Amino acid sequence: MTKLTCFKAYDIRGRLGGDVRLTSEALKLALAKGLQDAGVDVLDIGMSGTEEIYFATFHLGVDGGIEVTASHNPMDYNGMKLVREGARPISGDTGLRDVQRLAEAGDFPPVNEAARGSYRQISLRDAYIGHLLGYISVNNLTPLKLVVNSGNGAAGPVIDAIEARL
After folding, report:
1. Is residue 34 part of a domain?
2. Which of 87, 98, 110, 156 could join 150 in a cystine, given CB atoms 3.0 to 4.6 angstroms apart?
3. Which structural domain range is residue 46 located in?
4. Which position among 24, 71, 118, 123 bears the catalytic label?
């Protein structure tokens, strides 16, 4: 059995989205294929921040969510943050070690094409922006000067969408 070293306690955050890293899209699509092979219906929300995966998982009432990202690590790294139903984080104590054991065992059944899951790209950006703006009274914000640094991250388009509604 191969001992995997990619399972760290901080990989606990996480339907399917990816950040702006050059490798995120390819990794996300490979992940989607593996999930489909296992019979999972995959909803891809596109480029997103981890907070959008939390929202999408809860908003859609799905079984879990995965954000392809290495978060604060250097750009040549990549990984995944996982959440379960209700947008609850998956940690070493709540399922991540089980995933590690399954991956290390490598005992995967053959793909059953008849039971293969679907893949669909969706957009929840408007619902997400509405959710965020639901916490404030926009009328109380004027006049408003907005200064934002999204840190070269996936939050940039969200900030643009919020600004358009203010």
Report:
1. yes
2. 156
3. 16-124
4. 71
